[in-house]
Write a structure and sequence with these properties.
Structural class: alpha/beta
Oligomer: single chain
Radius of gyration: 23 Å
Number of strands: 7
Strand content: 5-15%
Shape: elongated
Distance between the termini: 50 Å
Length: 258
């Protein structure tokens, strides 16, 4: 293997290094998380490395395949699918990054929806703690705004996500009168649907969640007739790529389902 690496051209070595960097970028050792996005990112990095090392063999196989009529059809079909996939992933990535920024035109005291995530025992997990801090900032900046705390109870959670959010926010001094508990939701679609029902006849709300989650949430909210404004907690520069890749698949699921 080492002998093969030494025989690579400069362009092949650059491609191999690029693949290694991609692999490491999505590695849990760098992103500090492990999810489907991590796996996909590492697979892409590994594929780039293998393509650089075995590029000559790949070219030979493609040449032989192209010499046959069926082979031409297969290669063209794969290329079209790959092009569509790259365009889709690029568009979603840009959307996710764009929606991750806080909106600057949020009307004062707009009702908010705080989306839950994992609770560790009786306490908010790291990601949920960041979301709660963002909610505290928003509610402090908008003293007359109310906020729905949306999140049910997972199998490994001792209390509901909504209750964990309520306990933390009231402990920080936010009045209980401004907080509405919604503790039945198990996914983002239910978060939005159930929260909107509790808020009554409204057509806009501030969504408080992690930055990469805002775009997908806005799609779901739009289907429920709700205009949303982003107010985000930050996921971190090293974990953002992994989460963006995961959103490729999560957004696709939302787009193809009701």
């Amino acid at each position: 293997m080492l002998k093969r690496l030494k025989q690579l051209s400069i362009s092949q070595k650059i491609l191999a290094i690029l693949g290694l960097l991609i692999f490491l970028l999505f590695s849990p050792l760098v992103s500090f998380i492990f999810n489907f996005g991590s796996v996909v990112g590492m697979v892409i990095g590994l594929a780039v490395m293998l393509a650089s090392v075995f590029s000559d063999k790949i070219k030979s196989v493609l040449k032989n395949t192209w010499s046959k009529k069926l082979g031409k059809v297969i290669i063209c079909t794969v290329c079209v699918i790959a092009l569509v996939a790259v365009c889709y992933c690029s568009i979603v990535s840009v959307k996710v990054l764009t929606y991750s920024n806080n909106d600057s035109n949020i009307p004062q005291n707009t009702p908010a929806i705080l989306l839950g995530c994992k609770v560790d025992g009786n306490n908010p997990g790291k990601m949920l703690a960041k979301r709660i801090n963002a909610a505290y900032d928003y509610l402090t900046e908008n003293p007359d705004a109310v906020c729905v705390l949306s999140g049910g109870q997972g199998r490994d959670e001792k209390i509901t996500e909504a209750q964990a959010m309520y306990n933390t926010l009231t402990g920080k001094g936010i009045s209980a009168d401004r907080l509405i508990i919604e503790d039945k939701s198990t996914n983002t679609k239910e978060n939005i649907t159930n929260s909107k029902a509790l808020l009554g006849d409204i057509d806009e709300a501030v969504i408080i969640t992690t930055d990469f989650h805002q775009y997908r949430t806005s799609i779901i909210a739009g289907r429920n007739g709700l205009k949303t404004y982003s107010y985000s907690s930050k996921s971190g520069i090293f974990s953002l790529p992994t989460n963006v890749v995961r959103e490729w698949f999560s957004v696709f699921k939302v787009l193809v389902t009701n």
